[in-house]
């Protein structure tokens, strides 16, 4: 629904009451853990349960054959969401699996450079360290600006000096609301013809993500977070450049390739090359439904409302004595992180749980650089979504204020 009374960027209104009515979880909890896992809408669970029942009635292989068109919709929906074609999309059981598969397609050699940022996701950093251990690659981290977030010009200079085998960036990290300028980084990668891998796990479903604009070669995401799909689902985008260059995952199987003769195989021409034969079909159908649902709600409207709810929460948390809001950077998404004086992490999270508020803890080991720079060992992460309300935001801030007061006693 459009509100033409606004000035500047058109304000898009959502029917929040209807969206909440579609979301059974809203009746039970204040779910501010969408960066962990979003609440599924009823059509998503209906699609999954329906398919499981069909499998039970007619057989698993027969059920997937009967639902082939709906399975195909997973690819068309995700492709439309991120502005590419279905042939560039591979289903993955997790964002991490998609990421590892992409990395495995790059023939790293000793002294190859991986250029990344200080805000790249923890598992990506561990994967780079593992590649260093096995292949002797070098890992270079671009510096941040004083305001937070990567210094794109400094990163571009590092691209020119090191000619990295891979450039990697995380769009929105797990441990703060930072939005990284992935399209600006991508422009430099394209100019210099460098392989570029983007982790969009926290941005897909809350921000517009356009792979053509970003200029990446690979992009990874989960469906369970801001896309509100089921657990155990994600995807990998693979560019035509990568497919044409013949990059393929290290462990390619009988779905990703055809065994054409005893001594040879032929990889699929599409991103299916990065998939495995076995699929969790109910999950794939749930993910397709969740993606369609998000597109029908409208990504532009979601992108307006979701970070705005988070900004409202930060505004209310920042003045509370003993609370330190930790998000920094020129643009912030719907992950709100903060520390509270006088509390240990587990009791604080438990106190939020006891008040019916879902949240999540971030630890130093998830973000060695960022938490080192901020000099914190943990923080609480609150991540609202468009179906949360302003009243919930205010209530959560009120609860944090009450708890922070107890911590100071
Ligand atoms: C930025 C980011 N990347 C990747 C992941 C990993 O996703 P998955 O658990 O689906 O492997 C997460 C999970 O929290 C994340 O926040």
Instruction: State the helicity in percent bands.
Output: 40-55%
Task: Give the overall shape.
Answer: globular
CATH class of the largest domain: Alpha Beta
| The CATH fourth-level homologous superfamily of the largest domain | Type I PLP-dependent aspartate aminotransferase-like (Major domain)
- Mean pLDDT score, rounded? 96
Largest sheet: number of strands, sense, barrel closure: 7 strands, mixed
- Oligomer state equals single chain
Percent in strands: 15-25%
- Number of distinct beta strands: 17
How many alpha or pi helices?
Answer: 15
CATH architecture of the largest domain: 3-Layer(aba) Sandwich
| CATH fold type of the largest domain | Aspartate Aminotransferase, domain 2
Low-confidence stretches: 1-7
Ligand inventory reads: pyridoxal-5'-phosphate
> How many structural units, i.e. domains?
2
Entry summary:
With 409 residues, the protein is of the alpha/beta class. It has helices at 16-21, 42-58, 60-66, 68-82, 95-104, 122-135, 152-162, 182-192, 211-214, 240-245, 281-297, 299-317, 345-354, 368-374, 390-408; strands spanning 2-3, 11-12, 30-31, 89-92, 113-117, 138-142, 166-170, 196-199, 218-222, 234-238, 257-261, 264-267, 323-325, 336-340, 357-358, 360-363, 378-382. Helices cover 42% and strands 16% of the residues.
